[in-house]
């Protein structure tokens, strides 16, 4: 990273400082909050991958959870059966998931739009079936226990240790996405998303780039899955169902498709929204005296929030924030001009 | 050979229910390009409303059904007018997520109002069953099969020959031009959703008559997607045939293939078929190939 | 932007926090309040209601009131892990009443090593029952494998020679059947297993599976699933002409909805009862009725009564600890460990008829079950309490 201006450098330092000090600032609820942040970071990685596929290449994928499952199982199998360390397992999880992703992407040769999405839905269910029934590898529905690896003799699934490991990884993931989109590959993706027939005409091999997109996005999903596995220490097929895939799609959409920060905002939003609703309803509960319908109302509120959000801002959170940013910039420029600057 | 006949009959009976729900989804797609993931929830809510009127309020069955259909129509209009209208022109994925959000709202609502137990659905159908090839097929399955077939014929004729049907197809094809030609897209969309809701409710009532009534009935919304894809998104005939195919496939693979492959293979069999068919016919068995222009 | 976010995160989480004040005993409970097995979530409402009842009737325990906190685990492992961490970290509970097998397994390190908090799971799985490896985990009732043994022994007595298993393709369905096969339970009884049939948990129609059963014609079929799917099984069995009396279900099939929905198609169906039913003529039921006068009860079934009994155990154990400390609430880590120690020492504890007398030396409470059968549209008892040990 080059610091172009001193102001940017200062931001980076402050940012790193906050990152390092954050866990120490939570006096009472450390483990719980760190848990949420860690799950959010895993979500960021997975959602960034899905964003590459959907936001930048225009492919709707309903199988992100299954790909995460492939990564999780790879890590689990490699660490329990082969005893390999995590710095081999995680990249291996990514690589193997990428291969699976390419295979799953072959229908994209002939399919588009919703039909392609349904093909990914089929992939999701087929992979679930494999997880449940390839018992020699996955131990079926009983799942696999993992002993998480130790970093400096502390287990990785300790919330603190995991935080210092996964949040930088999430940051790296977002950074890689940004850089990817500046390359030829990234530009090919956007061309395919916008007008794939035209892209083909100007010489972009659409099928090849779609496969690359599947590969990269699955790599992200695989790594996210591997991290999830180390954190939960137990995986079974029920953790990678269609509902989880839908969560990821919600993250990408609510955050803002086709933007770099979109997955970050989306992941944070989807992880935190239930917490927020829970807190608010706990405050309201004595007032409205609803006990047994409490949980159902949270469901309703969640659905409502998603619907209202998309109705009024279909471009997602990143659009809201850039608008805010633009307004602030305009206001500041106006201020400077009024004071006689520039 | 008797077993295989029984298996096929079993498949056709459940398949006709799949067809019913699928018809609703296809209908909405055909006239508005929206893929309604909330169809299953609508079916479930419809069944619960019927249950409330018949069992909890003691209203006679015929009136209950009428009121239920009216309420279902109202729900359809509400969804169309207050939600989807804002989303005209939004991306497909956004619309899908919105319908998923509606699913959450409906499921949560049902949970809040009726709770999470299994309920006994009132017996709306005479308790006779027809013996076909050794299986006692309860009358409710016959009803659903007949209903699916009748609806198929009605909709085929409707879309091909009636003015409203043509208007719907035009609207789905190119909304701006349709408006320019004087077709009120508002009326078209509202009507579509009304019909789809009623069909969904009918499917839900039949479904609840077959199983117990429970909020998890909304999962059927998921099972119909292979049906729709196999049949082609914009083909009602496809939805009907697709439903029967998927039903029979599940039955056959459950009895003959699953013991060898292990697990609940019958569940993924439909998806495998989906993949195979899509590779050969990318728009489903009966779907129309969309021509894309630059 | 990211800074703003971190700030918002902290603010939104700090909004309301339930923290226990001095003189209060927070107890954590989670279950499936929304999700796939909601129909048995009476087991989570039960303990909450019992502790509320104790607060109202006796003013808590030695003047300290319980604060039961009920959260939704959604029957999903990450969700259960999350609510567990919240209960332990934020609410600082002294006991947790958990739910699923999978969630309990994921939390095994947290419960037994990192946090050390007594944990009563709703699971009946042998995978989490290990007094040595998991000293803080307690179950109540016979394991699924015990239940299979009881059912098959009974079948053997009735002269059965062949059986089949029927279950869903999830852990709850497959693992106990697998374990039972590995322990050779059918073989040791001289029973031949004709088939192990699986179906997808969300299936709507099971006619093909029942057709297979009709072809194979076992003497008995053991259903390792709950009432929701059992209803579908029996309904489709009636369609193809397999009588309900061939079917035997586990303890989650003791629900009145089965005869209620199926009527005469359910006659002869058998299930296992592991604790008292709602409305039984026992002292515990009188307590529940007293509570019901002023409160609305979520689920009036045998799972609620199980939960109520579990609440009783928690109250008993906490009372014993507080008697030893002279009414003073100890520091939380010590409190949790003392509760666990008292729990293990519980012997022949009477829950007012809700369950057979409970002994927790092997962390199981009891391993007895009674066989019930549907006759004339209702469940009637057809055996005594059968022990497995």
Record keyword descriptors for this entry:
heterotrimer, B: 294 residues, mainly alpha, ABC transporter involved in vitamin B12 uptake, BtuC, C: 389 residues, alpha/beta, Rossmann fold, five-stranded parallel beta sheet, four-stranded parallel beta sheet, 14 helices, 13 strands, 16% strand
Topology:
The complex is a heterotrimer of chains A (342), B (294) and C (389).
Chain A: H1 6-25, H2 30-56, H3 64-82, H4 86-105, H5 113-133, H6 135-138, E1 144-145, E2 150-151, E3 154-155, H7 159-180, H8 184-194, H9 196-201, H10 206-232, E4 234-235, H11 242-255, H12 262-288, H13 294-312, H14 317-338
Antiparallel strand pairs in A: 1-4, 2-3
Chain B: H1 2-32, H2 39-56, H3 61-83, H4 92-114, E1 129-132, E2 135-138, H5 139-161, H6 163-173, H7 175-180, H8 185-210, H9 220-231, H10 236-261, H11 265-280
Antiparallel strand pairs in B: 1-2
Helix pairs in contact in B: 1-5, 1-6, 1-8, 1-9, 1-10, 2-3, 2-4, 2-8, 3-8, 5-6, 5-8, 6-8, 9-10, 9-11, 10-11
Chain C: H1 2-14, E1 24-31, H2 42-58, E2 65-72, H3 77-90, E3 95-97, H4 101-106, H5 108-114, E4 119-120, E5 137-138, H6 144-157, E6 162-168, H7 171-182, H8 185-188, E7 192-199, H9 207-216, E8 220-224, H10 227-240, E9 247-249, H11 257-262, E10 270-273, H12 283-294, H13 302-324, H14 332-344, E11 368-375, E12 378-381, E13 386-387
Parallel strand pairs in C: 1-2, 1-3, 3-4, 4-5, 6-7, 6-8, 8-9
Antiparallel strand pairs in C: 10-11, 11-12, 11-13
Q: What's the number of domains of chain C?
A: 2
Q: Count helical runs of chain C.
A: 14
Low-confidence stretches of chain A: none
Task: Tell me the total number of β-strands of chain C.
Answer: 13
CATH architecture of chain A: Orthogonal Bundle
CATH class of chain A: Mainly Alpha
CATH architecture of the largest domain in chain C: 3-Layer(aba) Sandwich
**Rg calc of chain C:** 22 Å
Strand content of chain C: 15-25%
Indicate the percent of residues in helices of chain A. over 70%
CATH names the topology of the largest domain in chain C as Rossmann fold
